[in-house]
Structures are given as C-alpha cells and as structure tokens.
Amino acid sequence: MTHSHDHDDHDLGFSHDLPRMIGRRKLLSILGGVGLASASGLPALAAQCVALPWETAGPYPADGSNSRDGSVVNALTQEGVIREDLRPSFGEMTAEADGLQLDLELTLVDADGCTPLAGHAIYVWHCDTTGLYSLYDTPEANYLRGVGVADDEGKVKFTTIVPGCYDGRWPHIHFEIFESPEAAVSGAEPVLTAQIALPDDEAAKIYEQDARYSNGTRNLGRITIPSDNVFGDNTDAEIEQQTLAMSGSVSDGYTGTLTIPVDFDAEKSTMAAPPMGGEGGPGGPGGDMPSPPKN
Prior knowledge:
By secondary structure, the protein is α+β, with helices and mostly antiparallel strands. It contains seven helices and eleven strands. It has helices at 14-22, 24-32, 36-40, 181-185, 200-209, 216-220, 236-242, and strands spanning 63-68, 71-74, 101-110, 115-116, 121-125, 145-149, 155-161, 172-178, 192-197, 245-249, 253-262. The longest helix has 10 residues, at 200-209. The relative contact order is 0.21.
C-alpha cells in the first residue's frame, strides 16, 4: 500500500488516521451510536455463535504493554496503522512481508444475540513465514500489523499473508478488539484479546508446497491443537468457532473468514504481555513463544 503524506504528518498517529481513513461523517455516526447494529439487522453468520475465550497477547503485541531494549513498543500510535493491506510496513518504515496472500474477512458480533459490533476496532498481528514478529524480531519493520474498524454489519477486511508455524505453537493470528478506535489509541483495555487458529489441512498443504515457509512442515508436525499451550484447554465448540475457514490454493492465494463473538460479561484474562525477557513459558502467563528457529 502506498502512502503519500507530508513529513509533518508522520507521527500524528491513530487519531490522525481515523477521519482520513473512514470519513469524518461516518466516524461521527459510529461514535455517536446511532443504532447502527439495530438498523442493519443480523449479519449473515454461521449457525454457531460461541463466545471466543480470552487468550494471552504473548510477548509481541506492540500495543504499548511491553518494551524492547528499554523502549515501549506501540504500533497503535503510529500514523498509518489503520489500513487494509498489512503486508507493507507503514509510517517511516519501508520493509514488506513476503508470503502467500491471505484475504481476511472478520465479522465482529456480540455473543448475546450475534448482533454486529459496528464501529468497534480490531487490532490484528501475526508472525511472518518463518515465525518472526515485526518490531521485535525484525525491529526495522512493522508489517503484518494493522487496525480495522467494523462496518454496519460488523465486518472488517484485511489483506495479509498466511502466517508461518514456529516451534511450540499452533499457527495462529493474534487480535484485540476495542469498543472504539479512540479506546484503542488511548490505552484502554480491550473487550477481547484472543487468537485465531489456522485449519490443519490448509496449513499443512501451504507449508509443504510453498518454499517460503521453510520450517513450517517440521514445526507443524510437532504440535497439535490439544497439545498447544493456548488452544489446548479450549472446548471443541470454542476451537471450531475460532478456526479460520479458508478457501483457495497455494498457486492463487487464500481467503479466510471468521465470525468473532464477544462476551462482554466474560472474566477478562489475567495473562498480559510481559517485558521482553520476562518469566513465563510458551503460551502461558507472561509468555507466548520461545525464540523461533531462524531457518
């Protein structure tokens, strides 16, 4: 995605992106709560509407909750973070992520009635083809991160790549949902922090056939959903709900759809992203992953 801004705009951050990306009038409508959900009716949803469980954000969220080399890492305050294409870096960074294209369509709903969460913001981030995270493993890049704002039907679209599989974790995509874009930029607590699981068959096929995922087949062979430190204690219904529905091919790329039901009364997870080097094992409190293999 190409951005053309005056130099003085580079550090204005999330609040500067908001009216520019979705339009000032629409923003006022969203933030004013003008009955968008009730006006649009129910979206076309899957038969199930099982609330997704809270999961750890892991050590690489770049949401202002931890630091790297003594500096707080926060992509949410960087100009350009509201975007659809997550493959390029944004702001003053220029690196671009390589990988098999994945077009995501996420539908945000209230688990109570499956009504759309219009105007809510979702922050998405995930690793690259070999398990590395931007701003941490690759500090010169901030790709594979971005924020979208749900439309009247609760839908948010992103273009990204299929994430790789690093040792010790099932392949996944992280996300945080906020009540509004302002809540996300102000450091407010998310209404849900969770993860999306990739389906086994599609992941195995991609890692086997696409050489850019050089360690994917090996690492996927060492892990299962039941043995995963994040997904392993979820119910079958929760796993089904949080597993991405993928269609496409290794030659042409994939589309992925998922409905994300939010239980606003659920007990929030106590698992938080620690400072780099903090205690905690892969996927458990204070941790998400060991250092991923570099090959």
